[in-house]
Records
---
Amino acid sequence: MLDPVHESPWIVIFRRFSSNKMGIVGTVLILLLVLTAIFAPWLEPYSFKEQNINLMNSAPSAEHLLGTDEFGRDLLSRIIRGARISFVVGVLSVAISVLIGVIVGAIAGFYGGIVDIVLTTIADLTWSMPAILIALLLVAVIGSGLESVVIAIGLSYWAEYARLIRGQILSLKSATFIEATRSLGASDAVILFKHLIPNSIFPIIVAATIGIGNAIVLEATLGFLGMGAQPPTPSWGAMMSSGTAYLFISPWVIIFPGIAMMLTVLGFNLFGDALIDILDVKNGDSKK
Amino acid sequence: MDNIVEVDNLSVSFDVRGGLLLRKIGSVQAVNNVSFSIRRGEVLGVVGESGCGKSTLARLILRLIEPSSGKIRFNGNDILKLSKNELRKQRRHMQMVFQDPFSVMDPLYTVFRSLNEAFKINGIIHTPEERLSTINGLLEMVNLSPLHGHSYPHQLSGGQKQRADIARALALSPEFLVLDEPTAALDVSVQAQVIKLLDELKEKMNLTFLFISHDLSLVSYFCDRIIVMYLGNIMEILPADAVSKKPCHPYTKALTDNIFSTIPNKENSIPVLEGEVPTPFNLPPGCVFASRCNKVKSLCHEEAPLLRDVPEGGQVACHYPLFDISS
Amino acid sequence: MTFLKVTDLSVEFTNNKKSVTPINGVSFEMKAGEVLGVVGETGSGKSLTAQSIMGLTPLVGGQVSGSIQFGDKDLLTISSSEMQSIRGAEISYIPQNPMTSLDPVFRVGDQIVEGIRTHQKMSKKDAKQLTLDIMEELHIPSPRQVYMQYPHQLSGGLKQRIVIAIGLVTNPKLLIADEPTTALDVTVQAQIMRLFKEHTVAKNISLLLITHDLGVVAQVCDKVAVMYAGNLVEYGDINSIFGKPNHPYTQALIACIPTMGMIKGDLSAINGSVPNAGSYPEGCRFHTRCPYIKSQCKTEVPSMKSLSGEILTACHLY
């Protein structure tokens, strides 16, 4: 009797991941963001709120490694604290998008018919509107501030996840193992939640990883337009926005938050790309 | 006669939609007015080529697809009248073994977890010890080890996956199994293992089988009686040993002629049934086999023949059967 | 002059320091006009052997060794442009799945014409006529209409006939057919095998038929080569191999096939399953499943020996 190759799939994934250079870089960058966000109060050399008019717009120096902004606040500290905002906004808004998207898409794909047509139309309409437009409209309605921004971003991006999961479920619906489970007497709920959704979730995870990057950028954009977190909350976007007035005096006020954002988004994108590569290889092996 | 399953005038048709507004432009009669019984303890084979409806029939009998008309009785109960809940309880007695070992189990579940699901769904609660011993017992019945139980589907060979599928079908201790081409995707040596296993299990667990296959040799080896189908209709029902000796329907004979035996035969010509199975879409009236039959006469194009009894045992649907059946 | 002589054909793939030989030391011969069946289960290497003869081995990390003597050329040493001129003209290959071997965006008739004009200078008009002629010969109904169809509009049997037409239209010396009827209905399979008999056997085109189906082999072949896990285990005249096989695998394989009139219970099985390409056992690759195993089998690879003149067998029993 042939003995099965007894390697847990998790070990296989881990091994493949550790040989994927892009993925490692991405993971490092994400870890950097997460750790900075968690340990912000201990990492920041100064309070992010502390103003020092004497030092306003001062260039990077020994005391203020990244310089100061127009209120003399230490830029490094504000960027560190801003990591928290970006991370929380990124993760929470994507969580909202994924939740809405998975529910809508799964129902549309599973039940089909008129339900599918209605839900897909709603998703398509949402998807065809630029996210920034949706976010602006929502913020105009519910008011600005960090909570509003999270909700607005969450509601802007859900359509993509709905489409993804709907497509997966449509193709998996007729798989033999679904038929087999049904013939055991499984209810629709069991089939949907215990089989269809878990098997469809991987593309969602990849899209969500990259989506966190998008959400962070959108938050920065909203912050740039003055809609996001209110002062003195150091959102990177808001920092860049207020820094534009001083572009030629103290460009570091824009450059450094910008670099922080770029590295963060890059990290998520690299991680997501690596996930795609890894899954392809795993699926290739399993075609036995 | 103790019949475990009785099928009366079962039909199912699927709408074909086309055009911009996807309006109904016709229908495909996948299964047409099919009637037969399955005796308790027998292995009844269903054989036919693509488009004959055998896979659809398999799913109809378990009510995995709803028929358009007809009756299906299981142990005397009309299963078409059951509610969703009652049907779920009934399903414990009748299970299906599927064709495609490669996608028959959830790729994210170990074999153990897939088997356990049968119990979970049906509210058969086990203590962890009971669960372990029951499932290991099932695995042992199909010659798999607990190590196989803890594996994922992609770590198993085709034959092992097929056996795991049989274990899943047996988990609820059914009386009746429908096997839909269970060995079609397997090598011939692995097929032989699975067939032997099925034979043993049938004896041990007092099962009745409905065995679907395109392989007439396999079906005549393994089955007691055989239904020959063509384009959704039953052409003939006959005892397995009559297939090679005395087929009554011209199509059965054509299938028999086209079995390639392992007796070298390069010199002789191969008997051939011309043409191909037509698309089952908007079929002309009369016998569905008329377009390819070499014994066809005008009546065949006008009137579809009904199933008539054959004195030697069995039934045939043909206006001009290969031997005289009037008695 | 030999028609086709394959000697010690091996393909080795190295990946991450692991080397795998999906075919190892395969040797056989074909005479002109002969029909040779290469039979085996999954993982036997039969398709890979056919592809190697065509020079189509997937060469990513793969090394082909041995020699394939076709006429006066060794196909493994000639240049790729020379191989290209032979491929399709002198040796034609019918791949496994007709559903995917036809280009879906071209009419099927045009694809046959393309096959003609790649290897011969012929006007489009003449090539089209030749196409219609060969379609008639292959019993394709209404050739003019079928010519204009796209692959997806045709049934499996018709598609296979088109693929065979492409293979035969250049009058090759050798036709290699890889599982030509696996995906087809039984009655269509009979039609296609009859076609093979009429057009290759009658026209003296040599046919190398790759299949897992011993019944198909019995209908058309003169000789049969039995492969298991990349090795050629037995090879010879078809009547001898089917009538009195020597190799335990051949014996077991024939006994596994359900035949009409077989009594229930007579079907025997082979324990275990074919090993993966990455984990072939040492010595004879069949020893883990062989009922006649000796200690020699676990360490020494058996060589092909001529037994009774008609068959060559690679087994330590002899």
---
Amino acid sequence: MEQYRLAKSELKSFLELLKEDYQKIIGPGVDEEDRSIFKEITNINDLKLEKTLPLKPPKEFLFPQKDNLFNFSCKENTIEINVKDTTEKQVLFALRPCDLTAINYSDTFFKNNLLDNYYSQKRENTLIIGIACEYPSNKCFCTSMDISPASSNGADIFLTNGGSFFLTEFISEKGNLIKEKLKSILTESVQEDNSLKEKIDKNTRSLLLEEFNLKKVRENLEKAYTSEDTWKKYSDACIVCGACTFDCPTCTCFDVNDSFLEKDTGIRYRTWDSCSFYNFSLHASGHNPRGRKVDRLRQRIMHKFNYTVKQFNLWSCVGCGRCIAVCPVGINTRSIVKDFEEALNEDK
Amino acid sequence: MAGKNLVYLFLCRAKERKRLIEKINNKYPNIRVVDIGCSGRFNPEYALKLINKGANGVLILGCTPADCIYREGSLISERRLFLAKKILSGFGLNEEKLQVMWHKINEIEPVLKEIDKFMNEVTAIKDKEGVEKV
Amino acid sequence: MINKIEENVKILLKDIFKNGDTIISYRNSGTPEIKTPLFIRNKNDIDFLTIDNFNVNNLSVYLSKFEQGEIGLAKNNGRIIITAKPCDAKSIIQMISDEQIDKERIVLVVYECDGVIDLKKLSRLTGELRQVDANEEYVNFTKLNGETGKINLNSVLLDKCLEGNCGLPYFYNYYFVGNEKSFKERIIKRSKPHKLIIQTLKDKKELKQIVENEISKCIRCNACRNICPACFCSDRCVFDKPKLPVELLEKDVSLTENVLFHLIRFYHVFPNCTGCGECERVCPQGIKLNIFYKYINEIISTEFGFTPGSTDSARQPLLSYRLGEDLV
């Protein structure tokens, strides 16, 4: 892994050189209400790197909210199916370690058993540039999920703020391919640069509001499965809107439907689905194993903090806090999980 | 639905309006006639859906309050249809596309006259808007 | 002033609470500026209650929604004691008028607030917070990095509070007076008419463009429908496909379907919408739903002279008629 310095004044040229190979650059900017979001960067002034975590996760650029799977038309004795390949290349710029870990999870999910072509095509055409996080929100808890705010895991290229420059590391093969092109604007890195990441990690850690012990939580969650009163406390306020799952970078559930444009022709598409919805686990027989809010909330917490470890050896929560920020009724996942740090009393 | 120029006519007591329906079907092949029993039964959501999806217009033909065999059917639907029109205009859609006619059960010529006028109006609107997108 | 109200509310509740009752109020969540609804089923939990300027939720929504297949709150036979701001009380009174809840079962505890803080406005001015509290004049805060600051309460209040969406509720069981001066000022503001976007636009095309721009952001999460107290169809909603023989709305999130969703939803809540603004607050995409709900409130009040939430036994305008009205 080679590292260089990229002067901040050269950031514009950096993006322009990337644009030669990649059609779109998506990075952190602001919307019309001055809130931090991911959007297409066409002008260097659109880029805002010193704001808090963008509201929406970058998953929509790899797994869109509505994805057309194929067109079909029924003729006489056959059905014609047309699939469009994705060829557009894009850069996801300045993703923080939480989002990098989430992409690692969704990569594993969409490869499990059967490779998902729609996701993997977009993924192969994407270059991921990470950045060490210095501006957390008061809802973040990445460190409790074993993620360091300066971890480069999952990025092709990783940037670390060094004041007047970014320390630039080329990590993966994809990143190295583009290194030659960028060499003209990169300068030598010196020995002191190696301590930058540690400093940022320490500083950002001190800004986080709340932390918990993940291993203890997982043990206690297993034991608390059957205690319904405990879970009811948290699910009473829920209004079953699903916004937490839509804004979660690791939530990957989807629903497939057909839309008929005219008689015998149409599109098959998939849209995001949410395990918080009543219809999610509704059987054709009419039985619903998770018909109550309390069942669905328990399922969500157990899935993120227990089940996926058994399935993929990965936590499917990255501590970004977006579910807390978007919840209309203020349900706080971090607080719920922290409550499980202590074992329940036997008589509850 | 795009490019098909459909108008939907919802009317009540279709059995007693057979002659009228025959005349409409002959003169206007692009009007689809739907029997709803009583205009008070009509759910304006379907009118909203049809107009949103690109229908040229939706016409509702009901009985005058004195004529209604269910006593209050047309009276109840009056406010609902009024609000449906207001909602359409509030969303920037053309409220002229939804029109309501109250006629006695055996009137034919006055009904045809109004339908004529309505078809001219919606064709003019459609031409102005250009090709509709579904 | 509002901190005094919290003490007094706690004393009252401890007094009137009986086993089997459910109290719906607010408590702290793990984030300093966010409060979350609290359901109290035993007396000891009353101490967790908080009443302050951050209590933005309209708690009446929990009275009108049934859990799918399981009637949540109506299960036991005790009373439901609910703490409400005057604007929330309007929603509850409208629900009683629509016969969605039984007046005898509710104990309505209304308190005059100094206005509720808009968290979007707050975060724009302060950034991420470690600690925050408010009184009738200022909001005092500490940022994550330790810096402290102070801003005027009025600069971060919700738009509906600045426009005076409050007023003395038609009925209540208990009433806590707050800062009388600011409350009266806000009621006076309400009588000043505000221009609706729909009225100021002369060109229909411009309105259509604005509507399409806003609604193209919609992801059909149904948060606006679920938080709305006027949407009391809950598990029998017309948008849930298995309940109808014919699908009214496709699952497709194209612009046409999204416009249809909002068209139908606003058509359905027309006579019951009290203008609480929760739909706009909870939208994860930030769609300006105030364009629509203010418009429908205006139509209902000018055409039928009816203000939802003003009385608990109104004749529903859509279930009645006047001879010779001749509207269409």
---
Amino acid sequence: MRWWRRVAASAAVTIGAAGCGGAGADDQSVVRMLDNRYVPADIEVAVGGSLEFVNDGRVDHNVIDANGAFDSRANGVGDHKPGESWSHTFTEPGHYSIYCSLHATKNNSTGEWSGMVGTITVIDAVPNQ
Amino acid sequence: MDWGTRKQFVDGHGIGVTGAVALLIGLFVTGFGPFRLGAEATAGGAPAAPVVFSSDAPEVWTGETRNVPDDYPTIQSAVDAADPGDLVLIEPGVYAEAVSVTTPGLVIRGVDRNRVVLDGEFTRSNGFFVTADGVAIENITARNYVTNGFYWDGVTGYRGSYLTAIDDWVYGIYAFDSVDGVFEHSYASGSWDAGFYVGQCDPCNAVVTDVLAEFNGLGYSGTNSSGDMYIVNSEWRHNVGGIVPNTLDSELLPPSHDVLVAGNYIHHNGESERAPNRSAEWSSFGNGVVLAGVRDSVVRNNLMVNNASSGVEVVTMIDANMWRSGGNEVRDNMIRGSGRADLLLGGPLEEGSCFSGNDAKTSVPYFLNALHDCDGINLPLWYGLATSSDPLGRIAQAAKGENPQLEHGDAPKPRLNFEQLPDGVDAEVRPAVDVFESLEFDPDEITTPDLPADVDFDDPKASVFGVVLSAGFWPVLYGALMWWVPMAVWIFGGLWAVLKLWLGFVNADRSLLTAIGWTFLVVVLPVVGVLFFAVLGYRGLPLGARIARLAGAVVLWLAVTAGALWWGGVF
């Protein structure tokens, strides 16, 4: 990623964390994919809002919903290399548990993922005003 | 364990602007005094309290053994069936698996290190992926994984003993966001990033000892791994770079600090044709040890031979932020056959790293042992881009695709005749609990390895003022802009200034005291003294014209340097 995009992404995250805590409809917040964590790991977004996942790490990452609602690798995109990003718009309210298939693993007894994981809460109203 | 006075730093030590801008600011201001950017360190504070880790793992073996494949057909099925504190014992065979371990306190042991082989077949991500506390993995080989061979993530307590990692593409043996662990008696090769990696922990309370890493991008990498972090008594050879503790914005918990690198044999690093690498690894090319943006760490009693660039390089790390190195001690190392110089120290804005007692012959900047002495004079190094120009040039090489690339699996292969776990299947079964406190090694007893009798030392490479002429276009270009130009200002500008001063004295235009004073400043303050004289001491032009010309020259130089960095893809 070019340095100015990193700065922009960092600024967006900082502003988001300080001011909104999530994205409203028609807004787009940034989730940074560091090695090997999503930052922030937990985020709210309003229905109709979108998130941009930016790989600010040094190795590949991806974003997959544990229940199969979305997979950033779909349509031949594959894993996201450092500097690449992927956006998704959330049209249905609910909780989404996300993981990176390269840096998270599943407990075969509980079905829970651990490692590089996060949660996205999609709500009807603009979050945390 | 404690190996001396610990210096802890506050969070957010980085500069609050981008690394690129900070670098350019640093280029300009560093010659003008002790200008500081960013939060200051809280060095010399009270010693840290003992760290108490909380683990979910049982401290002792349950007595239960899960045999693979006699009781369970696969390693994963045995691991899934195991209760906390069980032993999973694996018979020889090739296991085409990626094993997820989420049960705490397991001991996973191969009967024969060289014949119990997990194979990723260049398609599976991680050989072992552990997210449970206290898991020990022993006496096993993992090869051909597209991400990592052995990987602990977010755990308290881990141990990797007698492991072999071959061609695991990112990291061979890896602990991330984990504390209280050890990697020992293990081998790693063929990883483009690092054979051994400990990342994002503070305090790590971790030890890497008696390991061998070869044909990797880096032998060891430790990004943002701090506090009782030891890399000791091991061999690092034929990697692009040897041991590289570093600070980066790509992980949490920067900066890296309080690392000890001691008792290692580090040789023949600077591999370009047989070790995979990408960008940051290439910037460490040929250095035995690199402290990149690292604070308050110690490199001592290492034997460093025939590394293509240097034995030890201490340098500022430029990422999204600029992370200054500082407070590091490089002591009592023996260094021979370095291609560029045995010791390298680089700014900008280096904060007091020092060198003492090293058996070394060459350094950049010159007279490092004398001018940056841990036990005597330690001058600040506000500028010092002679060293930094080389890794910046190599980042440009990587950005332009000029660094040699290997495909996954193309690195040389070792013979599978590695040392076995002592006592084999009868060895004591110990979950990885209180690992750090239970280790029986005293860092104070670490000594320098003996020099092998059959080693011939390499000749140094041809260089001009520390810039290696064979390094390639970008390192030479950046060396020219960032070091030769300032050196030329110092040398030729200094000669011009001295000539003007003493002609003025002969012609009775200047007093003897004035001539001596300016001469002292011009000689002792590299570059800056000349610039001061050109504005304040030279009388050949009006003051406004002098200021305008000097400002114009500095702005031109900064613009050309920034343009060259941009052209090279550095930012």
